[in-house]
Write a structure and sequence with these properties.
- With 187 residues, the chain is of the alpha+beta class.
- The protein has a single domain, classed as Gcn5-related N-acetyltransferase (GNAT) (Aminopeptidase, 3-Layer(aba) Sandwich).
- 28% of the residues lie in helices and 30% in strands.
- The protein has five helices and eight strands.
- The radius of gyration is 16 Å and the shape is globular.
- The chain starts with 5 loop residues before the first strand and ends in a 15-residue tail after the last strand.
- The model has no long low-confidence stretch (mean pLDDT 95).
Amino acid sequence: MEPDHLQTPRLELSAPTTADVAAIHAACQDADLQRYTTVPSPYLLEDAERFVALTAEWWADGTQPTWAIRRDGRVAGMIGLAKLDTGAPEIGYWIARDARRQNIAVEAGTAVIDWAFADDRPAVERIEWRAVVGNLGSARIARRLGFRYEGLLRQAHVNSLGRADLWIGGLLRHDERTPQDWPLDLG
């Protein structure tokens, strides 16, 4: 599959390129990003180079479309759909520290969800969201995107820092995409 380019009122979503390596590397130095995602810790320049190469492979084989989120030409984060070929991909995103609390993840997430549920992708009936317990920012974003909270996956998150419990949510193709009540205190 060829990489798709998505545009929102403020953002451009496009495949990461080698020109993004330095920005990805810099953003992934954030301790919270390393704690709450699967990026390696420590995060080396070679990790960013490998990530960009992998995203090209994922686009080519159609398994994990991944976009760099760009605002004013600068990388503000990443967003993607893992396991697209299963019909129930998992949305994942991270936002660089200096770009947080600007509604970027919700805007980018809406565009990616629209892309996944487009009529020419009828096999995608469900999108999953998962976050390490305590990642309130990600939970707030998922809730705003219309995800329904579905429960807790014990010790299901594994990264270079160890294991952690995960919250899980789901969004079905025909769900109303408005914030839902969640049994979590999201502040």
